[in-house]
Amino acid sequence: MLDFKYELDQEKCIGCEKCAEVCPTLAIDFDEEKKKAFILDIDQCLVCHQCLEVCPVAAIHIQGGLWQEDIRITKNKIEGGS
């Protein structure tokens, strides 16, 4: 299990739905009544950062987990590259 902290700031959220649309595991959903995104199931989160990258108002914060670049660097080191 990945060790990370995920926060979706409801005050900053503008209701664009972009984060919910890009989430590959549907860990984020959208509340039509409140017009805000919310974390539906944090256990489904892959920490892929797609939601973080598409959010136009930086309402999503992730601490921990790995960025794709971190994964490539680690894989390269394991395989003997630089």
Q: Low-confidence parts lasting 5 or more residues at pLDDT below 50?
A: 70-75
* Tally of DSSP β-strands: 4
Known CATH architecture: 2-Layer Sandwich
CATH class: Alpha Beta
- Overall number of domains: 1
Give helix % range.
Answer: 25-40%
Main sheet: strand order: 1-4
The count of helical stretches stands at: 3
**Largest beta-sheet details:** 2 strands, antiparallel
Structural class: alpha+beta
Tell me what the structure shows:
This protein is of the alpha+beta class and about 80 residues long. The chain has a single domain, classed as Alpha-Beta Plaits. The protein is about 25% helix and about 20% strand. It has three helices and four strands. A two-stranded antiparallel sheet has the order 1-4. Strands 2-3 form a two-stranded antiparallel ribbon. β2 (about 30) and β3 form a beta hairpin. The two termini are about 25 Å apart. Residues about 70-75 have low confidence and may be disordered.
Summarize this structure briefly.
This protein is of the alpha+beta class. The protein has helices spanning 18-22, 50-54, 68-78, and strands at residues 4-8, 28-31, 36-39, 60-64.
List the helices and strands and how they pair.
Blueprint: E1 4-8, H1 18-22, E2 28-31, E3 36-39, H2 50-54, E4 60-64, H3 68-78
Antiparallel strand pairs: 1-4, 2-3
Which characteristics define this entry?
82 residues, alpha+beta, Alpha-Beta Plaits, two-stranded antiparallel ribbon, 3 helices, 26% helix, 22% strand
